[in-house]
Design goal:
Largest sheet: 3 strands, parallel
Structural class: alpha/beta
Order of helices and strands: HEHHEEHHHEHEH
Number of strands: 5
Strand order of the largest sheet: 1-4-5
Radius of gyration: 18 Å
Length: 169
């Protein structure tokens, strides 16, 4: 599930959890239909079935998974999804769907829920490309006075090491 899933589920269900721990979260800001989408569109062009994506690079497959979850389209074979751009042009309806799933876009709607937690923590490596969005969420929650801590672990690019070397109580 990762940091995105913990954030999304945690924002909606404070009645289930006593605290919220978010580690190296991705997908928090509305997508910019920029270069990565155009590159990916070229890679997707030759796909005839979902299995053709097995050898694509990780971030390209991640984009496909995001599109399948956030902008499915049963009338758009062979992948049955819509991407944020089509023929190089941004698709406003798809971008709106992706923005609706971006925690930084909807955090204000869940402040009441987030205030119910005893603690909220965000953990990210200081060299992790995800640290900018983590800082933005921390700022958003600080604005509302929530009880949270964030940690940027020095010289750590990936968070998996922290789980392997520490036990949470």
């Amino acid at each position: 599930m990762g940091g995105y899933g913990a954030t999304r589920i945690g924002m909606k269900h404070p009645d289930v959890f006593g605290s919220l721990y978010i580690m190296s979260p991705c997908c928090w800001h509305p997508v910019d239909p920029g270069r990565r989408t155009r590159i990916s569109r070229r890679r997707f062009a030759g796909m005839k079935s979902p299995s053709d994506g097995e050898n694509l690079p990780f971030f390209t497959r991640a984009q496909l998974a995001t599109a399948a979850a956030w902008s499915p389209n049963p009338k758009n074979p062979p992948l049955y999804l819509d991407l944020p751009t089509k023929d190089g042009a941004p698709q406003a309806d798809v971008l709106a769907k992706w923005a609706a799933n971006s925690p930084l876009a909807f955090v204000d709607q869940y402040v009441g829920n987030l205030r119910q937690y005893r603690a909220i923590a965000i953990d990210v490596g200081d060299q992790d490309g995800l640290r900018a969005d983590a800082a933005k969420l921390h700022e958003a929650l600080d604005k509302y006075g929530s009880h949270m801590a964030s940690r940027c672990t020095p010289a750590l690019t990936r968070a998996g090491w922290r789980i392997a070397s520490r036990t949470m109580c």
